[in-house]
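Write out the 3D structure for:
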Amino acid sequence: MSDPGESDIPHTTSTLTVGNRWDHILARVGWKRSGHRVTPGLYKLGRPGDDSPVFVTANYTLSFDALRSALAGIAGYILVLDTKGINVWCAAGKGTFGTDELVHRIESCQLHDVVSHRKLIVPQLGAPGVAAHTVKKRSGFKVEYGPVLATDLPEYLESREATPEMRRVRFGLRDRAVLIPVEFSSFLVLLWVLVFGFRIVTADASAIPEAAFLAAILAGLLVFPILLPWLPTRDFSSKGLILGGLVAMPFAILTLLSPSESAWWRQAMGAVSLILIATSITAFLALNFTGSTTFTSRSGVRREMFAYIPVMAWMCGLGVASRAVLYFV
């Protein structure tokens, strides 16, 4: 099958340039977080024919590049959905990598006139946003869910069947660690406000509260992703509360044991308020990490938010109120 407009389909390759890799670094550190995008539409990879496979991905550069670089030597088409510069997993959760956008992109790219078959290979992590039966009904294209990792696609294409290992979702130490820079950069403002802004409600000249808040932030952003599988409990928030409490405890003890002319109750209130604030900080950052892992679901995150955010808010509010009392009384 040939189409006069097929020559207008842009080409891409499986080779990543220095510019691509630099873009990946900037994306990893959160620089212009929403600016790492590929123009949505249909792309040729190699020299595809009308029977070549069609792969679906997001218009986030890391997602697009991960797919094309894994298909070295394979000719096909890549259908890029408009996910607003968000990766496949997160976009599926937000609904931008979804049924409506997929059907719209099939129609706008006139995919029926480009390929003779009616099959799409959609990444497994995009399944939460795509209703295969609806796509089939509305567009005529059958959705095949490919493996979790794009690197498994060459083997998958040989049989069009994913092995159990290909279906297995992993979130190992390397996967968690690579997310730390972007999370850290996102909370630099929080770091500034808590470490320096809380000086105005510090009842004495001690640097212990600032050190505790800094440790709480670093625990939530750096330590939590690393220790995630080994922290007890299932919910991210409760894991964060445990980690935050452990991190805050030494600073609370230092507050109690530090030489001071203040009454004992002031030192005790200072220690308790420090634990309340620092623990809620770590727990909040841990809850935020649910958006970075494939272990969670929309319903699970929603349940956790309703259950724990009020607890965190009360803890932080009581802690701030206590420090305000110490400041003014």
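The CA atoms of residues 101 and 294 lie 22 Å apart.
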